[in-house]
TrEMBL record, chain A:
GO molecular-function terms, A-Z: heme binding; heme transmembrane transporter activity
Keyword presence, Transport: yes
Protein's gene: ccmC
Residue spans crossing the bilayer: 20-46, 66-86, 98-116, 136-152, 164-183, 203-227
Bilayer topology: Multi-pass membrane protein
Protein name: Heme exporter protein C
UniProt keyword list: Cell inner membrane, Cell membrane, Cytochrome c-type biogenesis, Membrane, Transmembrane, Transmembrane helix, Transport
Taxon lineage: Bacteria, Pseudomonadati, Pseudomonadota, Betaproteobacteria, Nitrosomonadales
Family: Belongs to the CcmC/CycZ/HelC family.
Subcellular location field: Cell inner membrane; Membrane
Source organism of the structure: Rugosibacter aromaticivorans
Automatic annotation (TrEMBL), chain B:
Keyword Membrane: yes
Coiled-coil region: none
Family in the record: Belongs to the CcmB/CycW/HelB family.
One MF term in the entry's GO annotations: heme transmembrane transporter activity
Domain of life: Bacteria
Compartmental location: Cell inner membrane
Organism expressing this protein natively: Rugosibacter aromaticivorans
InterPro entries: Cyt_c_biogenesis_CcmB (IPR003544), Cyt_c_CcmB_bac (IPR026031)
Protein keywords: Cell inner membrane, Cell membrane, Cytochrome c-type biogenesis, Membrane, Transmembrane, Transmembrane helix, Transport
Listed GO CC annotations: plasma membrane
Membrane-protein topology: Multi-pass membrane protein
Protein known as: Heme exporter protein B
GO BP annotations, alphabetical order: cytochrome c biosynthetic process; cytochrome complex assembly
């Protein structure tokens, strides 16, 4: 029992997590490519044409995973930032910093693919619908987090200030998630639900899930790569970095 | 509670000795609101339609104008550190400062808004709802803004960063505040919007001074 606890916390130090992350990154890249290839194949060649939306619906295979990731990464970022604030662990604050750009990318991708989908389906690039607006706020929150962290020179202070901002912004995530239920607006409701059968063809669902997995793996891989760079930069004065760089 | 009122009184007195700073935000509000009819054209139906949004957005910007000063001068002359060291809880003192900010920055907007609403051809009941929504909304703006001001205290390019951090967080207030006025002029019920605004205010009164205090302690480290 005691051994287990020690092993668990061993990777909370950058020194021991750095080589582990190095070993994990290729694994996540391989998984991302495999899931991505399978997901793209299913979504472009196997999944049937939608009865109402024709071929244009296929953009959901990128749009929906990107939107999910934008929310999940925000929660993860706020979680790690909060942990760093509460327990003063260096690695969790670095993790929050590493996640932010990927999260911002996902939010931007979600908005952008949504616009591409909206033009043929709704006849407009953008409508002031509750879900679109709250996703836009999420994007601004990511930008604010990144800007605040990069404006403060002292990394410890930057971590803490960023953590408070991330925790304040968390209130927005449930608003995005429930916006299609709370406000009866143009954005369609969710097609996938845990409590009832999915209201779409099974191959479509498979394509979506494979793409979501690919996005997960990609996000983990790039965040770990960025995390390694941040670790090296922040710990550059230490002995282990000198060894790691050799 | 004495500490709360003492801090509030001090901040109000200090601001009243240098009236220009307070008046700048107020005149900014008046001038920017008056610019819209000039820019868009004096069509009464159109003005009536855009009035809630114009008044509310301008109120957000006017609030933003006073925020960097909320903690900056106290931080520079060391008062803020003395506050952090004082035996009274810092959150209470900060709550006093935020209240003073609202009295100087928010309350004048609430009082001026009906007069400006007349320029936009709003009727009496709509003007009442406008004042009520601003009365609930402007304290919320001060509370949220204080968190942003504390986070950006002493940071490079703090003013621009403050706007970037705070404006997204202001959006819910704007939606429900302007929504209430719009609903009134469209003849719909306003209770829903005002209740949500009041709920947000209750939440912010509870959490914002605490979060602001945490952010200030980081800045003071």
């Amino acid at each position: 029992m005691n051994m287990k606890i020690i092993n668990w916390f061993r990777f909370a130090s950058p020194q021991s997590f750095y080589p582990l992350a190095g070993r994990l990154i290729p694994l996540f890249w391989v998984l991302a490519l495999l899931f991505g290839a399978a997901g793209l194949w299913v979504s472009f060649f196997v999944a049937p044409t939608d009865a109402q939306q024709g071929e244009g619906y296929r953009i959901i295979f990128v749009h929906v995973p990107a939107s999910w990731m934008s929310m999940i990464i925000y929660l993860a970022m706020a979680f790690w930032a909060g942990l760093g604030l509460a327990l003063n662990t260096r690695l969790s604050s670095m993790m929050a910093q590493a996640l932010a750009p990927t999260g911002a990318l996902m939010a931007a991708l979600s908005l952008w693919t949504g616009a591409f989908w909206g033009k043929p389906m709704w006849g407009a690039w953008w409508v002031w619908d509750a879900r679109l607006t709250s996703e836009l706020i999420l994007f601004f929150l990511y930008i604010g987090f990144i800007a605040l962290q990069s404006a403060i020179d002292d990394p410890r202070r930057a971590d803490k200030a960023g953590a408070i901002l991330a925790l304040i912004g968390v209130v927005n995530v449930p608003i995005i998630y429930f916006s299609v239920k709370w406000w009866n607006t143009l954005h369609q409701g969710s097609s996938i639900n845990l409590t009832r059968a999915p209201s779409m063809a099974h191959t479509m669902l498979w394509g979506l899930l494979l793409m979501a997995l690919a996005f997960w793996m990609y996000s983990i891989a790039v965040s770990l790569m960025r995390l390694r760079a941040i670790m090296l930069e922040r710990e550059r004065h230490t002995e282990w970095v000198k060894h790691a760089m050799e | 509670m004495n500490a709360f009122f003492a801090t509030m009184r001090r901040d109000v007195l200090l601001a009243l000795r240098r009236k220009s700073e307070v008046l700048t935000a107020v005149f900014f509000f008046v001038i920017v609101v008056s610019l819209f009819p000039l820019g868009i054209g004096p069509e009464p139906a159109l003005l009536k339609k855009i009035a809630p949004g114009v008044l509310w957005v301008t109120a957000l910007l006017a609030t933003l104008l006073g925020l960097p000063r909320l903690f900056a001068s106290d931080h520079l002359d060391g008062t803020l550190e003395q506050m952090a060291l004082s035996p009274s809880p810092l959150a209470l003192l900060i709550a006093g400062k935020i209240t003073a900010h609202w009295l100087l920055c928010g309350l004048p907007l609430v009082l001026l808004a009906p007069a400006l609403g007349l320029q936009f051809d709003l009727d009496v009941r709509t003007l009442g709802i406008l004042s009520l929504s601003l009365l609930l909304g402007t304290p919320l703006l001060s509370l949220i803004g204080a968190m942003g001001a504390a986070l950006t205290l002493g940071v490079r390019g703090g003013g621009v960063l403050l706007a970037l951090l705070v404006l997204p967080l202001y959006i819910p207030t704007l939606i429900f505040g302007a929504g209430a006025v719009e609903a009134q002029s469209a003849g719909l019920g306003v209770e829903g919007h005002l209740s949500l605004l009041a709920a947000l205010l209750a939440l912010a009164v509870f959490f914002a001074p605490w979060a602001t205090t945490a952010a200030l302690r980081i800045a003071l480290e």
